Fold this sequence. Notes:
Distance between the termini: 58 Å
Largest sheet: none
Number of helices: 3
Strand content: under 5%
Mean pLDDT: 75
Radius of gyration: 25 Å
Shape: elongated
Amino acid sequence: AYLSGEPAEEVVENVPGVNAALIEEHEESAVAALAALEVLGALSLLSLFFSRKSASSAPALLVHGSLLLALVAFGLVAWTAHLGGQVHHPEIRAGAQWQAPEGGSEQGRSIPGEPGEQSGRRGEVEDEE
Length: 129
């Protein structure tokens, strides 16, 4: 995604409803997530090197540090994904109001156990006599 970010930005930045500030926030968050993942990779390689070099496992500080950094990196990647979703999905932005599309209706849909239900089992249609 790092390599496709700029071209994707060029495509969506002029789409109606897309917020340019959200694109920039998503981009900045992606850079921080990438940096955390790179440091995590280096720390993990260092832990692997130490565990291979000695008969015992890697030093506890490296192992615990890797775990902590993995959790932080996961959080950054998840936040980046959330921001990316907000760029083109205004329905998940804070304060967004859902509105049914014009002409859309719930008519014809039944909920099991309610009047108008055709069958108690999924996919079955009652025979008409």
